[in-house]
Amino acid sequence: MCGIVGYVGVRQAAPILLEGLSKLEYRGYDSAGIAVRDENSEHVEVVKAKGRLRNLMQMTDSGNAVRGCCGIGHTRWATHGEPSAVNAHPHYSKEKRVVVVHNGIIENYQDIKDMLRRKGYVFSTQTDTEAAALLLDSYYTEPGRSSLSPRERALGAIRDMMIRVRGSYALGILFGDQPGVIYAARKDSPLILGCCEGEMEGHMIASDVPAVLQYTRKVVYIDNLEIACLTREEMHVYNIDCEEIEKPVAEIRWDAAAAEKDGYEHFMMKEIHEQPRAVRDTLSPRIKEAEDGTRSIDLSETSLTDDDLRAVSRILLIGCGSAYHVGMAERYVIEKLSRVPCEVELASEFRYRDPILAQNCLAVIVSQSGETADSLAALRLCKERGVRTLAVVNVVGSSIAREADAVMYTWAGPEISVATTKAYSTQLAALYLLAVKLAAVRGSIDAAREQALIGELLALPEKIERILGDKERLQWFANKMAASKDVFFIGRGLDYAISLEGSLKLKEISYIHSEAYAAGELKHGTISLVEEGVMVVGVATQPELFEKVVSNLVEVRSRGAYLFGLTTYGQYAIEDTVNFTVYVPRTDPLFATSLAVVPLQLLAYYISCAKGLDVDKPRNLAKSVTVE
Ligand code: AGP
Hints:
The chain is α/β, with parallel strands linked by helices. Helix content is 35%, strand content 23%. It has 19 helices and 27 strands. The longest helix is centred in the last third of the chain and has 22 residues. It is globular. Bound molecules: 2-deoxy-2-amino glucitol-6-phosphate (AGP). The site of 2-deoxy-2-amino glucitol-6-phosphate has 15 residues, from helix 10.
């Protein structure tokens, strides 16, 4: 997730662009850049800097050193290509005929780059965005279009680019021979236009409201496959057929702080709601569809060949906190599908237990930040022992990503809230892909099962959406739970892994003591803690274990527990036992974690809110634990 901004009007653009980008840094902050030009000059000045926006501000004297009333800017959260000045946006074609800033992911950028190379184009960055910029250039400079007006040529080139690329984008575009004009286009990534008046007279583009709010409250929301053309005086919007369309102007009533959270009260709730998009962005680029409609998983980015995967004899899943819980869940998925033995390791324990490591073991280090000290140390230990390492991380260029032999990025975008939600969900998604791929190349699942599993994966985002569409009952129940002193989460198999994450979410943001327990283990001692009114959350998404979990719930109910049941639609028998039930859509039981965790995230969130706590910054915690 990145932030884009643009301005064309009566004022100097650079300071406005930088101010707008500063309000979008929550969308990404590993590098930034601007492209600015004068109204009557074909010269476009591009300035880019690695690191936080302040570096770019220092380079440009807060924008005062870059002259021009028309420009675009970008603050980056790297997905393709390390954070660097070279990979920072804007990206442009030769002589800056086309200059582009982009938020989103061009999934077929490699195919496009290959096609353009055959046309003689040369690439200078590792980014997917440069492919879009040079593709635009190739269309815009086609001889057959030279008789068209500049605007017709621009709209035609943008339309053709939108048809050719696959993925998500919000684009800000400058054409070298069109001074004083900004184009924009959108598919699946947010994009708004700002209408500035008075001393600010002009127009803006932005990824999100905060970037324009101090200049205007009049905005136009661009919909998918629409193109905008902005000058100081005019704003035009077109559909994919290049027909001009009318768009209503909305009045923003949010304050700036609320706008950064997209209207949500906390980043955590915003990030819970970003999970469908984040999971889709993590899955889709890695699932290829052949002409005959069959799908396959492409993990070529990991440099793990099919032979490598067939040679793996054991998999270590290593992480801390929620990343460890991902490993607890994925062990069931990987072992069930591929029959490769897995071990799940707490990084802080692993690094000191002098583990016995075989050569053909694969160590998977899971980490949102990619900077967790214990996880980094575990990675280094594996490498010292000659074990191949694969990092599953969310921050491009992070220490774990750089030091691992291979990396699978989770494209969740920046996660601001200390309690992880979307990063956790994308880690699950990334490792589902590894599990299915591993099973397919080892022949432990047949083609039909592989296709069915891939279909179920692609259906997950929409099912998460459905859960998010029905939150009110959870909020009601959370207010009843807020006074709890002890809460148990119990489940069997994958449901135990889900319980671990649900319990941690509750503890870390509501400060209520909680334990997750393998449901079958409770009676071996801990059940002595269950007394009248103790809250027990029973997770029962696994069909073959459903009856057993329900009987464990009966055991605790007979000791006075108050029961919250979490299961899939259709398992209505649970209502004979529990006091309150939440259902999630059906999916392959192996992927149930991705759905069942959402109500537990929401439950923890609402309880924390009911207690008036700081949801995004819980006491004693940090977003990345870079110390032992
Ligand atoms: C989860 O909500 C916590 N913030 C914490 O357990 C976190 O998962 C753990 O510290 C690991 O962080 P990492 O994924 O950045 O390595």
